[in-house]
Fold this sequence. Notes:
Elements: H1 24-36, H2 40-53, H3 58-70, H4 74-87, H5 94-101, H6 105-129, H7 137-144, H8 149-164, H9 173-187, H10 192-204, H11 208-220, H12 223-230, H13 246-258, H14 262-275, H15 280-293, H16 298-314, H17 324-336, H18 343-402
Amino acid sequence: xxxxxRSTTIKTQKKKSSKSKLSVEELLDYAEDFLDQYxxxxxxxxAKKALDIDQKSLHALDTMASIQMEMGNVESAxxxxxxxxNLSPDDGFSKYMCLxxxxxxxxxxNFYKKGVELMLVEFNKQSGEKNKPSTSKQDQEDDSNCVTKxxxxxxFCSIAELYLTDLCMQExxxxxxxxxxxxxxxxxxTNPETLQLLASYWLSxxxxxxxxxxxxxxxxxxxxxxxxxxxxGPMVDPSQAITLSYDSxxxxxRILTEVEEYDKAVTVLEQLVEEDDEVVYIWYMLGWVNYxxxxxxxxxxxxxxxxxxxxxxxxKFEQRYLDDGLKAHVKELLENLVNVASEDEADGDKExxxxxxxxxxxxxxxxxxxxxxxxxxxxxxxxxxFKTKNDQNNNVDESMEIT
Length: 403
């Protein structure tokens, strides 16, 4: 949130000339275009050339910081954002939001607070100009970068989350957390992230009823949109239809499980698997939720847990949430389900049963064929017997005539 928005198409009409003949802004246009196409090395080269020309260009520093973030160079990105703060401390909120996300504890809170301060200035400025008619294409582009109530709400929510997690042991952390949550709701009462964090807040106070209320409110404000996007075809990315990240939705499933909304938890988890089926934690959660649903779902639980166990044995890199505790729980649950046939095993048994039924059916047909053959042979023997008897009678009659 808060990063400068960039063009999503390559500007093919630019004059093809060497980088040395391009202006700083032209170089940055190329850098941003390549960044949008995820050609990071090319983006880096153009941004570096721009900074070589003007080391204090705010646009160049911001673009390079974004590139460094995408390349995974967190410290380099943080240093660039800090340079932006030193050069222009009271203009532009996005650098403070980025620094907050790259920081922790009180430092992160202070960056968020400064960012929110500048967001509110920009928001109030927009409010005073909202009745002015749009007179140019530039005005329309500026509108796309406007600060929204959702932006402000999410920023306050981020501060509240710090007091619920990293700073939970700070003096008055609980009251500060609730205060920032209230401010977040004040700006957007339907913000799914805030509603979900409120559910976590009430869980921490062991108020299951309130926790269930807020997590269901949160889910109602994003899951229908997501499912609708899923049905729109392969060209639509459902994750783009909502504001919650992949990790946030993992937490959604965890909270739904804690408040025993198992069916909704399964729905969320199944969609996460559709997005990325290589996250062990999702398979584990699917197994755990089905286990919690009771004996009728134990076969499903075993199927998902065996999938998680298999992935754990093969995984060669670190994954978030994958720790010794999770591995131990998977093992424990599978031991509890040792006498339960998993979903795939049950299907295998059904196939074997069907094969046996077919064998039995074929055996009945064979028996019938054998019976029919026996009848035919009996009939043939009977005819032969009658023929032999007739021949004998004829011979007797002939003998009598001769006599």
